[in-house]
Write a structure and sequence with these properties.
Layout: E1 37-40, E2 46-51, E3 57-64, H1 78-85, H2 97-104, E4 108-113, E5 118-125, H3 129-141, H4 149-168, H5 175-183, H6 198-203, H7 206-216, E6 222-228, H8 232-243, E7 266-272, E8 279-285, H9 294-305, H10 311-319, E9 327-332, E10 337-344, H11 351-368, H12 372-388, H13 393-407, H14 412-421, H15 425-435, E11 442-448, E12 460-461, E13 510-514, E14 520-525, E15 531-539, H16 552-560, H17 569-578, E16 582-587, E17 591-599, H18 603-615, H19 621-639, H20 642-655, H21 668-672, H22 676-686, E18 692-698, H23 702-707, H24 710-715, E19 736-740, E20 746-754, H25 763-774, H26 780-788, E21 792-800, E22 807-815, H27 819-836, H28 839-851, H29 860-873, H30 879-889, H31 892-902, E23 909-914, H32 916-919, E24 932-934
Parallel strand pairs: 2-6, 7-11, 7-12, 14-18, 19-23, 19-24
Antiparallel strand pairs: 1-2, 3-5, 3-6, 4-5, 8-10, 8-11, 9-10, 13-14, 15-17, 15-18, 16-17, 20-22, 20-23, 21-22
Helix pairs in contact: 1-4, 3-8, 9-15, 10-11, 16-22, 25-28, 25-31, 26-27
Family: Belongs to the peptidase M16 family.
Keywords: Hydrolase, Protease, Signal
InterPro entries: Metalloenz_LuxS/M16, MPP/UQCRC_Complex, Pept_M16_N, Peptidase_M16_C
Length: 943
């Protein structure tokens, strides 16, 4: 189980935080205060409490100081596999509680493992806190005896499917494996990937599980963080009750830094079955996290590649035109680190040219050095990123757990920030000389299959262990492990705690106005952080493209970010970055959106720049040609990704003959027909305020927000336009389709049906009807395909909302040789759902959906999302409260009627994207007819 986690390390805060613990108290005039209390239980468990009463929710994080670096050779991937196992059951918490109960309580949960730690986390309504502490304590202290053979073997299949999903079936998926094998000797704990080897996972035994648990999962090796709205004294009593009697176990083994030095450079290449573009990485060994040079190397990575003024971007993108982008990142970990430069080159580019271009950029950097302007711009931009990384209570829990695990002190954040602030230009350049200039490195060339000539000269073929598709057979093993003696406890741990008092969820106050030019304005004030987020959304998007020139709207949005009438592209970007802001434009099927976030003190300047971008496009022909070429590269990358292919084909099947059938990027053919005049024509025809809406949330009041829109109101004139009507063609009677991706290790399965317009009164009831089937980890689809069968890393179903005709989507990415069995399992679940949906299902759905409301208003993005819903679908300000009444009042008869109408295998359309050679013939005897072959764009294959 994985999720992205943002850590503060390497992120600047100009206003130092005030952190309070039981041992120290720093008080001064500061912009932001994050207070915490830390104490330790007798068993060694570290407890960190942070109170935040802004929303009636609580986040819990349990971090174990054990990642893949604690594994043994021959048992790789075990820390990650163990993370999976802890979501199953424990001595006193029944099977499936994490999957079923947390969503039912209105919460979310997940876990993640890296080389140095394993993190488990949840966010729940505050009245479920004791319930969650009961569950977390049981899996920390009362887990190991409950592991049963069948659950153990099933989870092996799930983890192997995750590896296929993330690694084996992805372009460049084997890159990290190739790098670390070359970078670290076999005796180094970073010599293997976190997800591990198939053979090691398959050979893992129950004895291995017990050994790993006994060694690393003692309370003295863990940190428990609780952040949010809770009663501190009551919570301390619960912590003592549930966690206090867990016995310490395992030896404390100190992790020592183990940086490496390369005696020579290593050049490796791999012909990638899925990659469409050549990719080069240069990897330089550096230092462990929080080494004295750590902060300077972080800053060096930013300065080398971030923005149009950076030396690598100027050379590779603007001058040599080898790639649309270049990035660098410092992967500093507990024992060692490396700085990586990554380039996805344009189609057919020889990677020797890329390396030569990087060398030229380095020489220019050596001549120019590090300017104070560039250094300060990086620091200013990181201030906003810091605040964004602590917007939610879950994010705060991550930071507190991280600093406590790796420095023994959540308050180390102050030192971290101070060290970032104090980095000098001289230190950054010294880091370049010490770790980059002329140093040995690991270089990897990943090239499309059949094109080894594009790899760096002198590269050796990398050893990449490709999976073999062994016959799938889950062993017939006992379902439970009832013979063990339960761990003694002072109280009956099988008794689930009750909910706390009913929640009072206060919806935010929404204000709205209409400007004289017809633009709607919506806002929500939130003063928790000194941030503002806003958007300008223009109705139309790709939907207004000429069908023969799909991609105009997307190209136009990208080109409009490349300077204004008074600013070059570089000047515009620097103006944005000097304010520590972010402004970008995006295009989807139905909207073009200008998105922005900034410090509230800089808001007026940022909205001024957004207005300038909107009203004063530069229409630079050279930039248009560059962006067009970059978009062609993006199309190549899109077409290499199985998930993107299945989405493109799905839209073509559902909306064939309609503009909605096309991807917003377009195709190589459609882009070849587009000129800059097409962009200007779209802008002149459709960029008008009366089909637009402005949304704003954050540390700003209504009067200030409205005053900032004077230029938009006065200079952007009302214009009558006729929005074309979007009509859907009748769906074909064909309902079983196949797209071939040769040698694919997984099959992507989609099952879908067209439903209703997004603003139809039936949309929410359809979501209610689908909830128990697939709206999360608790859904029957996930239970069958992942938990019971082990066919997939995850399966779900949900409505995809569109203004014109939404659709219901069920999906799973399954191991190739169970493609047929997975479709059969899906159909079995759907049929059972139709036949057996009962009052308990409806009660769980109502409880879950109503309790989720507690998490609706936490971040500025959450608030903007509410405003987007209102403006897009013309909803009342209190639509969430009205939706709650719909949920409360819907009847069993209504839900069953919707299931009958929209969740019916006889009406659904099936799409399989996978390996034809091994799977196509197996699908012929399913009673669904012969699958119709389509190409990767959804077009019918010509015999």
């Amino acid at each position: 189980m994985k999720c992205p986690i943002r850590l503060l390390s390497g992120i600047l805060l100009l206003a130092v935080l005030s952190c309070t613990s039981s041992n120290q108290n720093h008080n001064s005039q500061k912009e932001l205060s994050i207070k915490y209390e830390k104490y330790e239980l007798e068993n060694g468990l570290d407890i960190i409490l942070h109170e935040d009463k802004s929303d009636p929710i609580v986040a819990i994080a349990v971090e174990i100081h054990a990642g893949s670096n604690r594994e043994k050779p021959g048992r790789t991937g075990f820390a990650h596999f163990f993370e999976h196992m802890l979501f199953k059951k424990s001595e006193n918490v029944p099977e499936g509680y994490f999957w079923d109960k947390i969503p039912e309580w209105g919460g979310t949960f997940n876990g993640t493992t890296n080389k140095d730690r394993t993190l488990y986390f949840e966010t729940i309504p505050k009245n479920a806190l004791e319930k969650l502490l009961w569950m977390e304590a049981d899996r920390l202290g009362y887990f190991i005896n409950a592991v049963d053979p069948k659950g153990f073997e099933t989870e092996k299949q799930v983890v192997k499917n995750e590896k296929r999903y993330r690694v084996d079936n992805n372009p460049y998926g084997h890159r990290n494996y190739t790098i670390i094998k070359a970078m670290y000797p076999e005796t180094h704990p970073y010599n293997w990937t976190t997800i591990g080897e198939f053979e090691d996972l398959q050979n893992a035994t129950l004895e291995d599980v017990k050994e790993f648990y006994d060694q690393w999962y003692g309370p003295q090796n863990a940190t428990l963080v609780i952040a949010g709205d809770f009663d501190k004294e009551q919570t301390k009593k619960w912590i003592e009750k549930y966690f206090g009697e867990i016995k310490p176990h395992g030896e404390e083994v100190r992790v020592e830094p183990k940086p490496i030095q390369l005696s020579s450079s290593k050049l490796l290449f791999h012909e990638d079955n899925f990659a469409k573009l050549p990719q080069l990485t240069l990897n330089f060994p550096t230092v462990e996290i929080y080494h004295k040079d750590y902060w300077a190397i972080n800053t060096l990575a930013e300065i080398l590649t971030d923005g149009k003024s950076s030396p690598l971007y100027k050379q590779l993108v603007l001058t040599d035109k080898l790639t649309p982008d270049v990035s660098a990142y410092h992967f500093a970990q507990e024992m060692a680190g490396n700085l990586r430069i990554l380039v996805n080159a344009n189609e057919g580019v020889d990677l020797d040219e890329v390396r030569s271009s990087i060398a030229k950029a380095f020489r220019q950097f050596e001549t120019d050095g590090v300017s104070e302007v560039a250094l300060n711009r990086v620091k200013t931009n990181l201030e906003r990123q810091f605040y964004e990384a602590i917007e939610s209570v879950q994010d705060k829990s991550f930071q507190l757990a991280h600093y406590n695990t790796f420095k023994g002190n959540p308050g180390f954040i102050e030192t971290d920030i101070k060290n970032i602030q104090n980095v000098t230009a001289e230190e950054v350049y010294q880091a370049y000389e010490n770790y980059i200039a002329g140093k040995n490195l690991v270089a990897t060339s990943f090239v499309p299959k059949g094109h080894p000539e594009l790899a760096l000269e002198g590269s050796e073929r990398a050893f990449v262990k490709e999976e073999t598709q062994e016959p799938y057979q889950l062993k017939d093993l006992p379902e439970s492990n009832m013979g063990y003696q339960k761990t003694p406890s002072a109280f009956d741990r099988t008794i689930e705690p009750d909910f706390g008092p009913d929640l009072v969820v206060m919806a935010p106050t929404i204000w709205s106005r209409k400007l004289g030019n017809g633009m709607e304005v919506y806002g929500i004030r939130s003063d928790e952080l000194p941030l503002v987020s806003f958007s300008i959304r223009l109705k139309g998007g790709k939907q207004l493209d000429d069908p023969d020139k799909v991609g105009v709207a997307n190209l136009m949005a990208d080109v409009m970010m490349e300077g204004t009438q008074s600013k070059t592209p570089e000047q515009l970007e620097n103006a944005i970055r000097d304010l520590g802001a972010e402004i970008y434009m995006s295009t989807d099927h139905e909207y073009i959106t200008i998105n922005a976030s900034c410090l509230s003190k800089n808001y007026e300047q940022v909205i001024g720049l957004a207005t300038e971008i909107l009203l004063e496009p530069r229409w630079d022909l050279a930039e248009f040609e560059r962006i067009k070429k970059e978009t062609l590269t993006a199309i190549k990358q899109r077409d290499a990704d199985a998930g993107s292919v299945v989405a493109m084909v799905r839209n073509k099947i559902l909306y064939r003959g309609n503009i909605m059938a096309h991807h917003p990027l377009g195709t190589e053919i459609s882009l070849s027909n587009i000129s800059i005049d097409d962009l200007k024509g779209y802008y002149d025809s459709f960029f008008v305020p009366n089909v637009s809406a402005f949304h704003i949330s954050g540390n700003i009041d209504e009067n200030r927000a409205l005053a900032s829109l004077t230029d938009l109101s006065e200079k952007w004139s009302f214009k009558e336009i006729e929005m074309p009507e979007v009509k859907l063609a009748s769906l074909s009677d064909q309902r079983f389709f196949f797209v071939d991706i040769p040698e694919s290790k997984q099959s992507q399965l989609n099952m879908m049906s067209v439903t209703v317009d997004g603003n139809d009164d039936s949309y929410l009831p359809i979501s209610i009807a689908n909830y128990q089937l697939g709206a999360g980890s608790h859904g029957y689809l996930n239970k069958k395909l992942r938990i019971e069968k082990g066919y997939t890393y995850g399966s779900a179903s949900f409505p995809i909302k569109r203004i014109s005709k939404s659709h219901l989507l069920g999906f799973a990415a399954v191991k190739s040789n169970v493609t047929k069995e997975s479709i059969e399992a899906f159909n079995e679940v759907v049929q059972s759902y139709r036949d057996n949906y009962d009052s308990k299902d409806l009660e769980i759905t109502k409880n879950s959906m109503l309790r989720e409301t507690a998490r609706d208003y936490e971040t500025l993005d959450d608030l903007l999302g509410i405003l987007h819903q209102i403006s897009t679908y013309n909803l009342p300000h209190d639509f969430i409260e009205q939706n709650q009444q719909v949920i409360k009042n819907i009847s069993m008869e209504e839900v069953r009627a919707l299931i009958k109408e929209y969740i019916d295998t006889k009406k659904m359309i099936y799409l399989v994207v996978g390996d034809k050679a091994t799977q196509y013939n197996r699908l012929l005897d399913m009673g669904m007819g012969e699958p119709i072959e389509l190409d990767m764009y959804g077009e019918y294959m010509i015999e």
